[in-house]
From TrEMBL:
It comes from Terrabacter ginsenosidimutans. This is Homogentisate 1,2-dioxygenase. SUPFAM superfamilies: RmlC-like cupins. Residues 12-21 have a biased composition (Basic residues). It holds the Pfam family HgmA_C. Gene3D superfamilies: Jelly Rolls (2.60.120.10). Residues 1-29, 345-368 are annotated as: Disordered.
Amino acid sequence: MAHYQAIGSIPPKRHTQHRRPGAGSTPGELYYEELMGEEGFSSDSSLLYHRNIPSTTIGAAVWEVPDQSTTPNHPLTPRHLKLHDLFEAEAVPGTDVVTGRRLVLGNGDVRISYAVAGAPSPWYRNGIGDECVYVERGRARVETVFGSFEVGEGDYVVIPRATTHRWIPERSTTDPLRAYCIEANSHIAPPKRYLSKYGQLLEHAPYCERDLRQPAGPLLAEDVGASPDEQTEVYIKHRGNGPGGVVGTIHTLPFHPLDVVGWDGCLYPYVFNVRDFEPITGRIHQPPPVHQVFEGWNFVICNFVPRKVDYHPLAIPVPYYHSNVDSDEIMFYVDGDYEARKGSGIGKGSISVHPGGHPHGPQPGATEGSIGVESFDELAVMVDTFRPLELGEGGLAVDDGLYAMSWSKGAGRPAVPGSPHSEG
């Protein structure tokens, strides 16, 4: 995100001496400068100033990451995955957003997981790619080496690759933290068509820099009630020969990871709330790219928000039937009443999987029923991928097995000529 920020104590010029306060005329010890940069010094970066040498570890162990194995969607089938069935209520208080994720869908470019958490996560960094975590429900504090965020319902939390951080859910008896986790094998950024050649969000973009929340900091160990010398474990997800090419390691540090006294640059975590997305509408139905909010390598993230709909006198507000020739379409239904899916069994917490090569569109009756509607009250997060997605163990566990037949009059079974469920 090429939007320069500077927080805390930094020297006047980069790569020059930056020292701790000394005693009298004796200079203090140097802080340790770390460049966190993308694409081999050729893209966005930030400089972080540490109290400790950031390379230091005193131990390493294997972290058995949650099951990352996948099963092809074969034979090719649209699916309805009921995410809210993934976690039993009694298990939630001991589950965290990092180690408790269950893989729903994945391919070589992106993995989609889900977690319902009541426990603080360990310190964690993803060494494979950026993460975009959508907070469906609940609240949490996210602490990072760049600073902290208070996050809640509707927040996208975008965390650059290799950022050490942890999630601390706010205790609640009504709304546990529900996190929809999109893990890239690349970087995640605003759509290029909404950016100037220097990285500023343009006038036609559906959001701007004012809508982005930067981390509050600097954040040091003593700010969270810890000792700077506290031995700490950091869980690292990285490339390897495990299922999906993902493995894990736990590094033990002889100090607390919150040791950054200051940083500056254009690479850092940030938060964007879906309510700040300004929908783009028109006289006739607008294609899905108008709903795009972020993109990664070979995938995009879109959101469908409450909005006025098409105002041509003969407009049909719900989507036309369409074949995803080049992509799989994954829709996560968060809130509202999704007009196009009426009668399909889909509700809050559902995912629809519409695979490339299969034409899909509104359920029977939804097209006619939408005529004359002036606004949609719906909230959904969509991920479109340009390589086929496979089902993770979480996705397989909550597939309703009926959705593919929902375009037939008999929801859940094929329409048979002469039966009460046929077209007649």
